[in-house]
């Protein structure tokens, strides 16, 4: 068939392809291929010249939709479930009567009254008119409503003249929204402009797909990491409790010394010793076992002291080791949050395996091959690279391997190193070449160090 025409009915999310072809007898015939782009209700429908449905990708019967059946032999039509007006031709009186009389949020009143206006564009119109999108439409004054209508007219004028500005709204590198018109309602986000709608859509959905794929593939690692952090946290709390029990060790040592010094005057079977504690010059009562001699009581207290002392020394080291393990696990979790590539996940999985959080399930031969290729695998994932407003290169490690490589191999004596204080986070290196950093670059590097840390959602982060 030959495509004669491509059209869009109004501002509906529908594309009509008018086709011309020869039938079995060689006569020219007209067919229509209709593509409906409506989210989960999307469909491709093939119709004859009388707009009767020949077939469709998805057949819809009366049990699926009470509004319209999409079945062979049925007439094709665009369902009008509610009366909407064309924003390209609507006038002020109609706008006021339809939009500004509805007892619902202003943005919703706009997109439920006008064809082709999405919730995003409705919010944008409210933002341009300096109106609260959640404000009741019925409470908007005529003056404010007219200002809103004028903004709609200006937007529609851009549409009529094909003055489009394709752009993607991102937050921390993740795509949030895309639009064919300039957006002013995302002031705290980054805006990336594109030369064409196609380039914008390709980039947006590729980024969305990559993030979704990374999130799915990281689910198992997150579960392993969460279980390891919970286990280490419980162990840490138990060790702190046990350490607290050793605080009375010095008291037992004093008891033993006092019994040794003054126990010679005790009566056989004495249950306590009252004497002056020569460390504090205060009277103290030491409880005794009446079945034991004074020196045996002293020995018993010294044994308790030595036992608690050994426990204290062992626990102090164990607690420090557990705290280090928790800090390490938190750093891996932070790295997992900023992972943007599959190679990042490979590095993190390798790190978890090296520290025993994931069991290594492979033979000795495979183990040898893995060690031989470890350097290559680690080299695929690269640190983030930013250019400051003053032109300085800023590098941000995405995991502990990259952090170590940046700090101990890549950085030089004249460079600057940034890190969130006493919390897990990325190492940030500014290549300064021995120069003093401008204040703006200094602040930008510090902001990156704060953002790529476990405290990125805090109001203030010490760097």
How would you explain this protein's 3D organization?
- Residues 362-378 have low confidence and may be disordered.
- It contains twelve helices and 14 strands.
- The chain is α+β, with helices and mostly antiparallel strands.
- It has four domains: 1-81, ibrinogen binding protein from staphylococcus aureus fold (Roll); 92-208, Helicase, Ruva Protein, domain 3 (Orthogonal Bundle); 224-333, no CATH class; 384-451, no CATH class.
- The protein is elongated.
- The strands form four sheets. The chain has a five-stranded antiparallel β-sheet with strand order 1-2-3-4-5, with no helix packed on it. A four-stranded antiparallel β-sheet has the order 11-12-14-13. Strands 7-6-8 form a three-stranded antiparallel β-sheet, with helices on one face.
- A hairpin with a 5-residue loop joins β11 (384-387) and β12.
- α6 (219-245) packs antiparallel against α8.
- The longest helix has 44 residues, at 294-337.
Summarize the structure.
The protein is of the alpha+beta class and 463 residues long. It has four domains: 1-81, ibrinogen binding protein from staphylococcus aureus domain (ibrinogen binding protein from staphylococcus aureus fold, Roll), CATH 2.30.310.10; 92-208, Helicase, Ruva Protein, domain 3, CATH 1.10.8; 224-333, no CATH class; 384-451, no CATH class.
Which terms would index this structure?
463 residues; alpha+beta; ibrinogen binding protein from staphylococcus aureus fold; Helicase, Ruva Protein, domain 3; 5-stranded antiparallel sheet; 4-stranded antiparallel sheet; elongated
